[in-house]
């Protein structure tokens, strides 16, 4: 094979990976610190029989914790490289109840969610406040991190996590 073809292919692949790394129209990739996330998820009622969504799931760490609490867990993420990595981590740890979808969180409806977790920037959180107020069923829980809903009153605030009940 021609060496210039191999180099061009390598450059293209590098660009695709780089672009995917910086994907995320509503927040850059900053992972949640995992220390107390289990406690927060439990407070949000994440357990067997519940449907959990993470909107912008990064490397999949929160979805995997929710899956370990036995919830049917789904992460939606715009960066395919992070989706790929999340799927790999779940498979490596033999976690079957964590699924990862590549796509835009605003293209999906969350009416079957019991718990949603959000760590995104202010503009996206504002849009989600309106969207989730319309779509979530009664009793569903939303958890925000660092950037919070403007009008929806939380029933609990712990560290930089706020929990809301629909
Ligand atoms: C601040 S990071 C949080 C990652 C993860 N939720 C966590 O807490 O560890 C935001 C993530 O959301 C993703 N993201 C941003 N806008 C998005 C959108 N509109 N649809 C899907 N994913 C998005 C980014 O690619 C990034 O991985």
Characterise this structure.
This protein is α/β, with parallel strands linked by helices and 166 residues long. It has a single domain, classed as 3-Layer(aba) Sandwich (Rossmann fold), CATH 3.40.50. Helices cover 37% and strands 20% of the residues. It is built from five helices and seven strands; from the N terminus they run ααβαβαββαβββ. It has helices at 3-21, 37-43, 61-68, 80-92, 122-135, and strands at 51-55, 72-77, 98-102, 115-118, 141-145, 156-158, 161-165. Strands 3-2-1-4-5-7-6 form a seven-stranded mixed beta sheet, covered by helices on one side. The protein is globular. The model has no long low-confidence stretch (mean pLDDT 92). S-adenosylmethionine is lined by residues 23-27, 29-32, 54, 56-58, 61-62, 76-79, 82, 104-106, 119-120.
Number of helices: 5
Name of the level-1 CATH class? Alpha Beta
Q: What is the first-to-last residue Cα distance? A: 60 Å
Q: Which ligands, by name, code or SMILES, are bound?
A: S-adenosylmethionine
How many strand segments? Answer: 7
Give me the Rg, rounded: 17 Å
- Remind me, CATH topology? Rossmann fold
The portion of residues forming beta strands comes to 15-25%
Instruction: Average the pLDDT over all residues and give the rounded result.
Output: 92
Topology pattern, helix = H, strand = E = HHEHEHEEHEEE
What is the approximate shape?
globular
């Amino acid at each position: 094979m021609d060496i210039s073809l191999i180099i061009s292919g390598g450059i293209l692949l590098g660009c695709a990976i780089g672009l995917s790394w910086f994907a995320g129209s509503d927040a850059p990739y900053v992972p949640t610190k995992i220390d107390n996330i289990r406690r927060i998820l439990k407070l949000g009622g994440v357990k067997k029989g519940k449907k959990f969504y993470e909107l912008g799931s990064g490397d999949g760490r929160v979805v995997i914790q929710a899956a370990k609490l036995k919830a049917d867990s789904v992460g939606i993420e715009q960066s395919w490289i992070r989706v790929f990595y999340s799927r790999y981590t779940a498979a490596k740890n033999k976690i079957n109840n964590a699924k990862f979808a590549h796509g835009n969180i605003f293209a999906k409806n969350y009416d079957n969610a019991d718990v949603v977790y959000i760590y995104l920037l202010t503009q996206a959180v504002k849009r989600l406040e309106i969207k989730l107020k319309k779509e979530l069923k009664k009793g569903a829980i939303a958890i925000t991190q660092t950037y919070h809903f403007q009008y929806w009153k939380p029933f609990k605030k712990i560290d930089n996590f706020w929990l809301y009940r629909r």
